[in-house]
């Protein structure tokens, strides 16, 4: 669209902290300029350059932000090709994602550098969802909780390697999954803290006490809660126990209903406020696409290795996860927090995740049943359909 200004009125607007019924969102130059009620809309005079659209009672929500995703729609970070990252951007925007952090799994150094370079080369060229930076899921992970990761990609904590990784990332590494119990992790954590990299615990066999030590160096976020981590035990609370006991810890969870039983989302909400929970997909390249017949994995509600049936990733989009939350009884307001507000805040992405003046005009238009109608990224519609 060539319009630089829009007014979307007669809508229910989920701002990220409230619901404003029968309201309008005024968008100018790619930003939210104002959000106001219908009475003020009727009083306001718009220039001829402003496109005024009646939403007919539709819902307007902040765009989804996926902070842990390996691929989707046939494109993935394992391709080590910036065209694939751009393909992810375009596909995800069609599924309601307005921003994402491509996740790179544990890889030998040479491969890791190629994957990092591919993401960096794609940044700024995307036509769909915005690439915020990098999430490194490794290489400093526990071989005892390897899950779907490759053993050859793991490494003991090595500060020299971390410095090479940081240099290759050119300041674009946002978050990194680590195992807090590994030897020399404190030294690495302090280095990452200095560089502004958010550390999160995952693929970890840490004891409760080791997790507490990790918290003392600001490892305060958990990667795909309940999965690939020491579980709760009545004599050893483990990582899961630490996440449940300490409300200040935030947790991401995979919203496919398989990795995390929906009843456990209820448990998390009983132990934490909704602002500590982040919906993710942990999706793989072939999410929403038929995997090749000769692949060493198969899809059955999630992706599993053929050799041992180990779960290696999900096949959902954020839109799927969001609707799963609603179907599981989570309120729309809390689902919006988990899918949009919290990912932006916890990953320190200012100006994203809410529909308030000054924030990016990244939003989803959904019908009364929360089916996706259109998505706007930076004030531009991804697809135009009638509400």
Summarize the model shown.
It contains ten helices and 22 strands.
Characterize the structure shown.
The structure is a single chain. With 387 residues, the chain is an alpha/beta fold. It has two domains: 5-61 and 353-381, Urease, subunit C, domain 1, CATH 2.30.40; 64-346, TIM Barrel (Alpha-Beta Barrel). Helices cover 27% and strands 27% of the residues. It contains ten helices and 22 strands. It has helices at residues 38-43, 82-93, 109-122, 159-169, 185-195, 208-215, 238-245, 262-271, 318-327, 332-346; strands at residues 5-14, 19-28, 31-37, 50-54, 59-62, 64-69, 71-72, 75-76, 97-105, 130-131, 134-137, 173-178, 198-201, 221-222, 250-254, 277-280, 297-299, 303-305, 311-313, 363-366, 372-377, 380-381. Strands 6, 9, 10, 11, 12, 13, 14, 15 and 16 form a nine-stranded parallel β-sheet that branches. Strands 1, 2, 3, 4, 5, 20, 21 and 22 form an eight-stranded mixed β-sheet that branches. Strand 11, helix 4 (159-169) and strand 12 (173-178) form a beta-alpha-beta unit. The chain is globular. 51% of the residues are buried. The model has no long low-confidence stretch (mean pLDDT 95).
């Amino acid at each position: 669209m060539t319009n630089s200004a829009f007014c979307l009125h007669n809508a229910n607007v989920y701002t990220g902290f409230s619901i404003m019924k029968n309201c309008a969102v005024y968008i100018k130059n790619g930003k939210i300029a104002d959000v106001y009620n219908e009475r003020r809309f009727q009083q306001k005079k718009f220039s001829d350059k402003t496109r005024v659209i009646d939403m007919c009672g539709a819902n307007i929500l902040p765009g989804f932000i996926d902070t842990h995703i390996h691929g989707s729609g046939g494109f993935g970070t394992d391709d080590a090709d910036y065209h694939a990252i751009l393909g992810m951007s375009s596909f995800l925007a069609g599924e309601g994602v307005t921003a994402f952090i491509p996740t790179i799994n544990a890889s030998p150094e040479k491969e890791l550098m190629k994957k990092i370079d591919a993401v960096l080369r794609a940044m700024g060229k995307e036509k769909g969802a915005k690439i915020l930076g990098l999430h490194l899921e490794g290489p400093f992970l526990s071989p005892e909780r390897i899950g779907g990761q490759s053993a050859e990609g793991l490494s003991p904590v090595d500060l020299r390697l971390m410095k090479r990784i940081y240099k290759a990332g050119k300041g674009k590494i946002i978050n990194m999954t680590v195992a807090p119990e590994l030897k020399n992790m404190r030294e690495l954590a302090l280095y990452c803290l200095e560089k502004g990299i958010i550390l999160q615990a995952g693929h970890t066999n840490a004891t409760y006490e080791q997790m507490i030590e990790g918290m003392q160096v600001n490892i305060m976020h958990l990667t795909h809660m309940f999965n690939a981590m020491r579980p709760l035990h009545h004599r050893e609370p483990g990582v899961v126990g630490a996440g449940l006991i300490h409300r200040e810890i935030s947790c991401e969870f995979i919203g496919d209903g398989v990795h995390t039983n929906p009843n456990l989302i209820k448990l998390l909400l009983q132990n934490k406020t909704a602002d500590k929970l982040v919906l993710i997909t942990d999706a793989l390249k072939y999410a929403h696409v038929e995997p090749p017949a000769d692949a060493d994995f198969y899809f059955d509600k999630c992706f599993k290795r053929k050799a041992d049936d180990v779960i290696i990733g999900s096949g959902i989009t954020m839109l799927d996860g969001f609707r799963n939350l609603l179907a599981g009884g989570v309120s729309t307001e809390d689902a919006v927090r988990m899918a949009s507000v919290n990912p932006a805040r916890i990953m320190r992405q200012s100006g994203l995740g809410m529909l308030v003046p000054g924030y990016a005009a990244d939003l989803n238009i959904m019908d009364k049943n929360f089916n996706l109608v259109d998505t706007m990224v930076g004030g531009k519609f991804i697809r135009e359909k009638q509400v």
